[in-house]
Amino acid sequence: MAADEKAQAKGEQVEGKVKKVVGGVVGNESLKAQGHAEESQGDLRAAKEKVKDAVRPK
Fold this sequence. Notes:
Largest sheet: none
Number of strands: 0
Shape: elongated
Helix content: over 70%
Distance between the termini: 16 Å
Order of helices and strands: HH
Strand content: under 5%
Structural class: mainly alpha
């Protein structure tokens, strides 16, 4: 499950970055903002997984 969450986080980060760049290139502020939000959501999901890994006993 953790690997699945990590992959989803990376996917959100990449998708958000693409939308942010495309929105900036074409001048679409809405798409740019949506990309920023998705990238941030991916960052938060990745941070959550890092915390879970740190707390999980080895």
